Amino acid sequence: MKTYILPSLKITVILLVLLSGVYPLVIAGIGKFTPGQGDGVTVTYKGKVVGYANIGQKFTQDKYFWSRPSAANYQADAGAGSNKGPSNADYLKDVKARIDTFIKHNPGVSRAEIPAELVTASGSGLDPDLSPAGAKVQIARIAKVRGLSLAQVNNIVEQNTETPLLGLFGPAKVNVLKMNVALDELKK
Amino acid sequence: MNTEYLGIIFMYLLTIAIAIPMGKYIAKVFKGEKTWFDFMAPLEMLIFKLSGIDPTREMNWKQHLKALLTINAVWLFYAFFCLLFQAHLPLNPDHNPSQTLDLAFNTALSFLTNTNLQDYSGESGATYYTQLFVFMFLHFVSASTGLAAMMVIFKAMKDKVADKLGNFWDFLVKGITRLLLPLSFLVAVILAFNGTPTSFKGKDTVIGLQGDTVHVSRGPAAAMIAIKQTGTNGGGWFGVNSAHPFENPNYLTNIVENVSIIAIPIALVFALGFYLNKKKLAWVIFGVMTVGFLIMLFPSVIAEVGGNPAIAHMGVGQPGGAMEGKEVRFGAAASAYWGITTTVTSNGSVNAMHDSMMPVSGLAQMFDMMINAFYGGVGVGFMNFYIFIIIAVFISGLMVGRTPEFMGRKIEAREMKIASLIALLHPFIILVGTSIAAYVLVHFPNAAWATKPSAWLNNPGFHGFTEMLYQYTSSAANNGSGYAGLTANNIFWNVSTGIIIFVGRFFPIIGPVAIAGILANKKFVPESAGTLKTDTATFGIMIFAVIFIVAALSFFPALTLGPIAEHFSLK
């Protein structure tokens, strides 16, 4: 065994320097030239940072587009999914309650118009997006609370909608924080 | 929805398009032929010189295993002590505490073995030091350990090699410098430009639009996430892994990460063909693996896109499929696809919570890990498949009355004994583990432990049973994904899965290497009319049958109690 222990120790130290020291430092150096300089891309409103573009935020007030339910309450240092199984009776009760709450705050919306993502928790608990349908179903409520026209709010959804990658791959989505900043900016 | 299907078809085709030339490249590297990464040679020479290693010294299979086990022991102790004292080590901007004894035991073994079951959350349970100098380090070296062991088998299959099976250190280092490091570098840069953090700044605090204060965990994550995928490790920077919007910011990064998960495992199959100049055999193996992969993929995609019937009854629309535990930017199809690719390859990273997926998906994911050889982990996937080949050769030899031979060597009782033990070990540790856990849960629900067994499960009924079965399956397969609802950070689960992880890693490495080494020392019998051909479709079907009989027969009863029962009770 002695033939192997010494080389094992030495090569471990050398590989630690290369793989855990040099490699991430080089990546960190390259990261300086990326959007957000490697610290994460932020969103500002009136010159103040109000969040990270990629990190979902809790929105429960009627004047804002709501985010998806979060099992982590949008705490971005402890992201988590609900990990509830599809057949769990307590979980299904929660979903039912979310549907009722949504309809109460959005009178006139039929159940079939509500996409499931608005009543189910995301995997990370930090999902920053909605599907365009999940945003559009909230337009009437926001327009009414803010005294805006439906077209104005719809415009915000359209402007923030991101099409699938190259128009071909994956779902379309819309960033909730960016829409809500756009709503607040309309007010000025 | 169509763009979601296009997305996963594109991902698979892209993977194959990358894997074939990559396989050729890997074969060249280990044959010692010229490649465009030869500029790494001076770095490799420097590493060998400083370590006092002669990379040209040929080793036999026993020497290979001694070197492999020695250095793995060094890494295990190093990792264990770092985790126990991480609070006092540098690079801890978020002031996270050290890991407890049982958690450090589990975590060190888990990363050493390429498993990456994570009973902690990266945001609060690790420091930047342990993330980079323990986890990311082990990501590289554990993957390369698998590669090195596999190369011994490749070499042993050649003619007239006997005890000259290459040098372990040479394989280990080249796996890193020629394959894992360049590839990870590329992936990390793509991630960085798409919003994954790279800097060493700790948590940020911001006040959101609604006035809520939010703490945002960050860190030099891009470098680690890249190797976590390319090395089929799976242990992420953040607790929710690649579902986290920093760890996997958009659909492009999802494609890059997902392709990275299975590119090397598939490439290694083609590498075998190029290395031994047996391309037809490589295609037969690839064919068997792909059929198995697709059989698991289709039902899972259909189930996730179709949505949860219990939610459909409430009247809401599920245009995006079953969205509990999933992210809008990936959608149901890409989440199901990831779930299958991560479990066939022993990667274990997730972009959606498996615990919340449909029972059909849970069934497919567990089946992947129970078989653990459809593509499989870096190096070890092929080694598991090798065991099935040996068994298939033996059985078909008996069936048609020919001497069982593989690659010109007779397979006899000793090799068969090893192969059978390894094949049976996997179901044994999974099922025994699950039955002990289920027994404890039923008979001692209120045992006076820090976490009472009655508090283990996050879901009742069949799904709860699946949470336990999944945890042991994932541990034994060195996969590391989890039904994350299980409360696993306690002595019972940390210790029991830790032991299973260890057994599930090292015996399936030792067994195939020993078989290959023994075979290499046997007399070479040239192929004749009496030889059973192994590079034919017929033999492919034979391997497939062996795999399905071994896996289906041993696991079917357990699966019936879990996902199958849940599927039929879900209305």
Description:
The complex is a heterodimer of chains A (188) and B (571). By secondary structure, chain A is mainly α. Chain A has 2 domains: 1-39, no CATH class; 45-187, no CATH class. Helix content of chain A is 44%, strand content 9%. Chain A is built from 6 helices and 5 strands; from the N terminus they run H-E-E-H-E-H-H-H-E-E-H. Chain A has helices at residues 2-31, 89-105, 132-136, 139-146, 150-160, 176-187, and strands at 42-45, 48-52, 129-130, 161-162, 173-175. In chain A, strands 3-5-4 form a 3-stranded antiparallel β-sheet. A two-stranded antiparallel sheet of chain A has the order 1-2. In chain A, a hairpin with a 2-residue loop joins strand 1 and strand 2 (48-52). In chain A, helix 4 crosses helix 5. Chain A starts with a helix and ends with a helix. The relative contact order of chain A is 0.13. The model of chain A has no long low-confidence stretch (mean pLDDT 93). Chain B has 571 residues and is mainly alpha-helical. Chain B has one domain. Chain B has 18 helices and 4 strands. Chain B has helices at 2-31, 41-51, 61-84, 101-112, 122-125, 128-156, 168-193, 221-230, 251-276, 279-306, 309-312, 331-344, 359-371, 380-400, 413-443, 461-476, 491-520, 537-569, and strands at 204-207, 213-216, 405-406, 409-410. In chain B, strand 1 (204-207) and strand 2 (213-216) form a beta hairpin. The longest helix of chain B is centred in the C-terminal third of the chain and has 33 residues, at 537-569. Chain B is globular. The mean pLDDT of chain B is 93. Chains A and B meet through helix 1, strand 2, helix 2, strand 3 and helix 6 of A and helix 1, helix 2, helix 3, helix 6 and helix 7 of B.
